[in-house]
Amino acid sequence: xxxxxxxxxxxxxxxxxxxxxxxxxxxxxxxxxxxxxxxxxxxxxxxxxxxxxxxxxxxxxxxxxxxxxxxxxxxxxxxxxxxxxxxxxxxxxxxxxxxxxxxxxxxxxxxxxxxxxxxxxxxxxxxxxxxxxxxxxxxxxxxxxxxxxxxxxxxxxxxxxxxxxxxxxxxxxxxxxxxxxxxxxxxxxxxxxxxxxxxxxxxxxxxxxxxxxxxxxxxxxxxxxxxxxxxxxxxxxxxxxxxxxxxxxxxxxxxxxxxxxxxxxxxxxxxxxxxxxxxxxxxxxxxxxxxxxxxxxxxxxxxxxxxxxxxxxxxxxxxxxxxxxxxxxxxxxxxxxxxxxxxxxxxxxxxxxxxxxxxxxxxxxxxxxxxxxxxxxxxxxxxxxxxxxxxxxxxxxxxxxxxxxxxxxxxxxxxxxxxxxxxxxxxxxxxxxxxxxxxxxxxxxxxxxxxxxxxxxxxxxxxxxxxxx
Length: 469
Hints:
Layout: H1 3-23, E1 27-35, E2 41-46, E3 48-54, E4 60-66, E5 71-77, E6 80-86, E7 91-97, H2 101-104, E8 106-109, H3 112-127, H4 133-138, H5 141-165, H6 170-199, H7 210-218, H8 231-251, H9 253-256, H10 261-273, H11 277-295, H12 301-310, H13 314-326, E9 340-343, E10 348-350, E11 358-364, H14 369-384, E12 390-396, H15 401-410, E13 416-419, H16 427-431, E14 439-443, E15 449-451, H17 461-468
Parallel strand pairs: 1-7, 11-12, 12-13
Antiparallel strand pairs: 1-4, 2-3, 2-5, 5-6, 7-8, 9-10, 9-13, 11-14, 14-15
Helix pairs in contact: 3-5, 5-6, 6-7, 6-8, 8-10, 11-13
C-alpha cells in the first residue's frame, strides 16, 4: 500500500466531509482503503443491514447513510469486522490490510479516538479469553471471578487512560461507564446456567452467590432512558423481566395454556416493573419489532395495537409502521412471483409446478439447528396429509449446493427438496423478508399467500391447513 496515495485519499475525504458538515448533512460517511481484500462487499449493520457497498479493485470504498442519532454500528469486510460509534454528520476514514488486520487498522476523522478505543477493546476481549463464553463459564467460581475481575480492571484502566488524553464524546463515555457497571453483573447472571451446561451438572448444585446477584439486579434503577443504547443495561432489565414473567405465569396457570399467555405476562411484568414511559416504550418496541420482522402484522396484531394506542414515542411508532408497510406485498391474498429453483435431481423447477395444491414451504439450511429440529415434525405431518391436496416443499438457502445435496442424500430426505441460489439474497428470501430460519410459508392452490410466516409443523399449523383444504 503506497502511503502517499493513502494520505491524498484521506485529505480529499476530509475536505469533502468538512464541506458537508458546514451545511450539516445528517448522513454518515464511511470511506477507506483495504489492502488484500478477501471480499468485494462491505456491509454496515445496526441490528440488521442498513447499507452496503463494493470495495473497488484498488481497495477503496465509500458508503453513506442517513442517521438520526449516535449509534454503535458494525462494519463487516468478508471474514473481519469492527464497531464504529458514529453520529449524524460524521465522516471517518478506515485504512487496513486484511493480511495483518489487527496491526494495520487505522482510523482518521470524526470519533477516531472513540473508535480506536473500541477496536482495541474488542481485540483485548478476544485475546484475554473473556470472549470465549464456554471456557469462561466452565471455570470454577473462584477462577471465574479472578479472570472476570482482571479483565474489567485492565480494560477500565485502558479506558481511563484514553479519557485523560482525548476529548471523548460525553454519550460515548456514559455508555462505556455503563458497560463497566453492568456487564460484570450480566456475566454473573449467566454463570449458573452456562456452568451447569458446560459441566453437565444441576444448577442447584452450583456454589455461587445467586441471591446476592439477584439482590443487585433488584436494586437497579430501571428508569434510565439515557442508557437505552447500553446492551448490558438492557440485558439486565430483560433478565429482571424474565424472572417476573416466570413468577406471573406460575401464579396464573391459565396463561401457560394460552397461545398469547407469554405476551400477556410480559406486558404485565413491564407494567409492574417499569415506570418511565420512555423505557417502557423501548422495551415494548423491541419485543414487537422482533416478532413483527419475523412473523409479520397478522401474528403481532394485539401487541401492535396496544403499542400504537398507549405509546408516547412517535419515532418508535413510525418505525413499526414502516416495518408493517413492508409486509403489504406478502400479506394474505397477495400473488407470489414464480420463483426459479433447482431440485435434488438437478432439474429446473418453479412454484407454478405445484399449482392446484396448497403449498407448505419450509425455508431452511443445513447449518441451522432449529431447522433440523423441525424435520421429524415435518416428516410426521407429511405422512399425515399424504392423501390430501397439499405439497410439502423444502427450500434450502445454503450458500452452496454441496452441503444441501450431501445432507438430503445422507438422510434420505424424500419429497420436494429444492435449492435456491444466493442464500439470504435469493429471490424468495428477499421477497418474503426472510431474516431468520426456519421460516414457513403457506400458499393456496392458486399460488396466493395464506400466511407469509406460518406456524411450524411442531406448532399449530394443522388448524390453518385443515381450514383451507
